[in-house]
């Protein structure tokens, strides 16, 4: 009987001690896992009772408040290091495609991310542009004398030999080798430096330039030819505009005064292109001209000019000692 009484007294003492020092609840801790307990601080958690320490949030996870029993994944577009109380949005030039990213992944060369929070992957640089660095926030425009007919490229392709030129010329941002023509002005290099600064695109183009002396499609109409049409784009510097080809159109080269006889690469001076085309309206000192059967037919020269012997241009008159002869192309 005495032994039973002693055992009962011991049990009561243990119960009283437990009641006086209960175990720490989940989310709390102490040196012995019993009361008095302290809430786990932000960035840590305790998933079980009676904990003597708190667990740091894992990389890619976070714990926002104190006394937490679990950690939360950051989600796509965000990342965190161990012990984080909040997640950080992935910066521009990178992406975070997991729900538990420990660090952002930089965009590969040929790709870019203009805005923070990219989730799956960086965007590919469009045609006519490139990026040679990791972590790009934008793509650079291909320089004059270069082109890029593919997306996601780390560099642009140099224009091939054209006529007497070892490197053909093309407008900045060209998207096809068909835009390379036989004229000077091409840049010898087109490289992005390690800081991400884009090269000067160069290749300023006359506002009159509309078509290149090439074909890029099929025209089912007799007497018509497929010629590229030019469009304005913003340069790498962000100031001013350059031109780039954006579509083809079928042109009646037999009667189109701006593409008479073929596609026109450069209308300045009314010179004939490598394709055989000529912008009749750009011939100097001409007041009236038409395109007839693929040839410029000058009807009237400007004051002070006369039709040349080959009837291709308007030139200054040759001074003669005899009387002036009547010629219907002279000044009216």
TrEMBL record:
Gene3D superfamilies documented for this protein: Tumor Necrosis Factor Receptor, subunit A, domain 2
Nucleus recorded as keyword: no
InterPro entries referenced in this protein's UniProt entry, alphabetically: CPL1-like, Growth_fac_rcpt_cys_sf, PriA/CPL1_fungi, Tyr-kin_ephrin_A/B_rcpt-like
Segments forming domain Protein CPL1-like: 248-315
Tyrosine-protein kinase ephrin type A/B receptor-like domain location: 27-74
Signal in keyword set: yes
Keyword terms of this UniProt record: Signal
Signal peptide: 1-20
Domain of life: Eukaryota
Official protein name in the record: Tyrosine-protein kinase ephrin type A/B receptor-like domain-containing protein
Source species of the chain: Heliocybe sulcata
């Amino acid at each position: 009987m005495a032994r039973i009484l002693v055992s009962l007294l011991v049990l009561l003492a243990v119960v009283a001690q437990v009641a006086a020092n209960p175990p720490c609840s989940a989310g709390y801790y102490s040196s012995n896992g019993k009361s008095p307990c302290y809430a786990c601080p932000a960035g840590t958690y305790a998933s079980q009772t009676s904990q003597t320490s708190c667990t740091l949030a894992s990389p890619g996870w976070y714990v926002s408040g104190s006394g937490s029993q679990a950690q939360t994944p950051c989600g796509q577009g965000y990342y965190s290091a161990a012990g984080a109380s909040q997640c950080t949005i992935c910066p521009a030039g990178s992406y975070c495609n997991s729900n538990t990213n420990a660090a952002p992944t930089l965009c590969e060369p040929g790709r870019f991310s203009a805005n923070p929070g990219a989730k799956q992957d960086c965007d590919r640089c469009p045609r006519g542009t490139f990026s040679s660095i990791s972590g790009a926030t934008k793509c650079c425009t291909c320089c004059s004398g270069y082109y890029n007919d593919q997306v996601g490229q780390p560099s642009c392709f140099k224009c091939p030999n054209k006529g007497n030129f070892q490197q053909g010329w093309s407008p900045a941002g060209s998207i096809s080798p068909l835009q390379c023509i036989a004229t000077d002005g091409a840049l010898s290099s087109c490289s992005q430096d390690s800081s991400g600064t884009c090269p000067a695109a160069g290749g300023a183009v006359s506002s009159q330039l509309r078509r290149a002396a090439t074909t890029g499609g099929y025209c089912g109409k007799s007497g018509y030819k497929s010629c590229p049409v030019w469009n304005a784009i913003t340069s790498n510097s962000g100031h001013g505009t350059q031109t780039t080809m954006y579509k083809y159109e079928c042109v009646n080269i037999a009667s189109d005064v701006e593409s008479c006889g073929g596609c026109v690469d450069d209308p300045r001076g009314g010179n004939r292109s490598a394709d055989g085309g000529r912008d009749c309206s750009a011939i100097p000192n001409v007041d009236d001209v038409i395109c007839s059967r693929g040839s410029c037919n000058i009807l009237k020269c400007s004051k002070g000019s006369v039709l040349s012997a080959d009837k291709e241009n308007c030139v200054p008159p040759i001074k003669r000692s005899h009387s002036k002869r009547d010629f219907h192309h002279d000044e009216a």
